[in-house]
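ugh ok fine here u go
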Amino acid sequence: YRHASIIKTHAETIGRQAGFDEEEMNILRISALFHDSGYITSYERWSEESVAIATAFLEEYAIDRKTIDRVSEVIAATRIPQTPKDRVAEALCDADLMYITGDGAVEQFDLLYEETALMSSPFEKRSAFEKKWIDFFTQHTFFTEYGRTVLQPGKEATLQRLTERMKR
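structure:
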């Protein structure tokens, strides 16, 4: 739950900066809270499971089909490679990767490796894992103005630290 709350807060920051209206903010908040919930049942199919969990919850509370479909699309967009189709999905995609932009980004990256190593079969060597993510970080671009102006410099600093660490 803590992770979902952090992503929701990051998403709200991006949404407010972008001038989202209340409907867009609500879709963003709901999507942020559910977007990683699928990890509860499947590490490999987390995105599809997250959509299923969100859909079941929203249907239980008689939320309209248009809203459910929009939340589902926004959640699905966060699967890497990210595929946002509107600005709400772009905001969630950027919020989902904010962990690579802060002072503790390398530590968060190390935790991601440990999580992946526990859940993946066959076990991926750390050097291969780091190379794959360095390649991703190098090719990745943020979608929102906030991402490009505020988050990008932090991502570049993280990329530099990871690249230097790999050279050792």
